[in-house]
Design brief:
18% strand; 33% helix; alpha/beta; TIM Barrel; three-stranded mixed sheet
């Protein structure tokens, strides 16, 4: 990447401070762009779901991996729960979506509680293991909550065989005005297909391990017996191990990271599988170099840019994210490693600019909180708007959960030092209520940015991108105006 005019400014920049200049391009279509990540993780889309308790769970992990990204399960989850979640994700089909299953005797109230778990908004009614109907929220309007599903379901069912051509299935579903269809392997239901899902399968490539299973990662801290913890996570077959702490450039991290690498190398020798180790967070070239020297394959960059984070306001510590990514990416590349840009993205342009600055992937947290697939429960405000609660991982709420095994005194003392927002309503966008809807928007913007730069891959984009600096008025000029001025 180079700056317009050639000179790097003597001050730090956020994503809003910069813009990309179009260049001569022979990339005529967004579909000519390959978004495979250069960090060795195996993802085909440069998006990582942040290891936040309110956001990253098994539904999110399954969905994002099916579209080429990866989710990192939070470090505060007990190891046995992480192991169960990893096994569950890896048992999901890489193309067919996981259905919501109910019986004909299930009451409407129970169905409505389940429908918010999946963006496709439909439940398959099974009798003796075979699908006999579909029920949606629309079927449950103005119906007594104790009515059984058999009375409101749509029995006109179109099933798809597992080996059917997807494009032909799309035409068939369109002809029958259906948005969801169960997929059968003989008498067994493997999942469901949606029309949007079929379209997406033609654009995205799932992120899969060597056995063809969906990828999923897990985070761990730097306290306690880190080698044993890493071994436990590796035994659960996680595909990425993230060693995570708010201040990654500290002695405890530099002591813990080599122990994690030892555990990883032992696992690789036994299983033949290499699991990348990610460590962070840092915002300086010096911090990046030390983490790479300590064994990190990927360094996580970002202190304070997250929507739930109050670190900069509480401590004055942090760094504008674009400049942090730019400096850390160069230092990581010098050491043969990569970086993930963690936080501060609100629009597709920000993801594109992070990749231009040298990131291999971009970690997203709060932006994905207000989706059907995030880990929180769906709620409705007084105006009927759907939302989910999100909170920072250094907030009082997260600290209470993290210190649940400590004494009352220790927990109370830890609570005095919390940072971050403990509760925030993240509203679902009616036009984009699922994480896949947001992924579509992000991928479209990023692919388009690549075509403007004349780049077909992430490394090529980093080489070809030309970035300029703008004023606040320049940034505002680029905003759309949905109503007349």
């Amino acid at each position: 990447m180079e700056f317009l005019g050639g000179a790097k400014p003597p001050y730090d920049l956020t994503y809003a401070d910069v813009f990309m200049v179009p260049a001569r391009s022979d990339v005529s279509s967004r579909l000519d762009v390959d978004l495979s990540t250069p960090d060795g993780v195996g993802t085909s889309l440069p998006l990582v779901v942040a290891n936040m308790t309110a956001i990253s769970g098994r539904r999110m992990a399954e969905t994002i991996a099916r579209r080429g990204g990866i989710a990192i399960l939070p470090q505060d989850i007990p190891s046995d729960i992480v192991g169960g979640a990893v096994s569950w994700v890896k048992s999901r089909h890489p193309v067919f979506e996981t259905p919501i299953k109910v019986s004909p005797e299930t009451v409407v109230a129970a169905v409505l509680a389940l429908l918010g778990k999946r963006a496709h908004g439909a439940a398959v009614v099974l009798a003796e293991g075979r699908p006999v109907g579909i029920v949606t929220e629309r079927d449950c309007v103005d119906v007594d909550r104790f009515t059984q599903v058999s009375e409101v379901m749509t029995p006109d069912l179109l099933a798809v065989a597992k080996d059917d051509d997807l494009y032909a299935a799309y035409d068939l579903m369109t002809g029958h005005h259906l948005t969801v269809a169960p997929v059968l392997d003989g008498d067994e239901m493997l999942g469901v297909l949606t029309r949007k899902g079929i379209l997406r399968s033609a654009i995205y490539r799932p992120a899969l391990d060597a056995q063809g299973r969906l990828l999923v990662g897990a985070a761990m801290g730097v306290n306690g017996d880190v080698q044993a913890k890493a071994t436990e996570l590796l035994s659960s077959e996680v595909d990425v191990l993230v060693v995570d702490t708010a201040h990654g450039h500290q002695e405890r991290m530099l002591d813990a990271l080599p122990l994690v690498v030892v555990a990883r190398d032992k696992w690789q020798a036994e299983s033949g599988v290499r699991v990348p180790v990610v460590a962070g967070n840092v915002v300086s070239a010096a911090g990046t170099r030390e983490l790479v020297a300590a064994g990190a394959d990927v360094v996580k960059v970002g202190v304070g840019p997250g929507a739930m984070c109050t670190t900069r306001m509480m401590t004055g510590v942090g760094r504008p994210q674009f400049s942090a990514v730019l400096d850390c990416a160069q230092a990581a590349d010098d050491g043969g490693a990569s970086i993930w840009a963690d936080g501060g993205v609100k629009y597709p342009r920000d993801v594109a600019l992070a990749l231009a600055a040298g990131a291999a992937s971009v970690m997203v947290g709060s932006w994905f909180a207000g989706t059907h697939e995030s880990a929180g429960d769906l709620a409705r405000d007084a105006d009927g708007r759907l939302y989910k609660e999100s909170f920072g991982m250094a907030s009082a709420r997260a600290v209470r959960h993290r210190t649940r095994d400590q004494s009352s005194f220790e927990r109370a003392r830890s609570a005095l030092f919390d940072e971050g927002i403990s509760s925030s309503r993240m509203y679902l966008d009616p036009a984009r209520p699922g994480v896949e809807d947001l992924v579509d928007m992000i991928a479209a913007g990023v692919r388009s940015a690549f075509t403007y730069a004349g780049a077909r891959s992430i490394p090529e984009f980093h080489q070809r991108a030309r970035v300029g600096i703008q004023s606040a008025a320049g940034y505002d000029e680029g905003r759309p105006h949905p109503v007349s001025w």
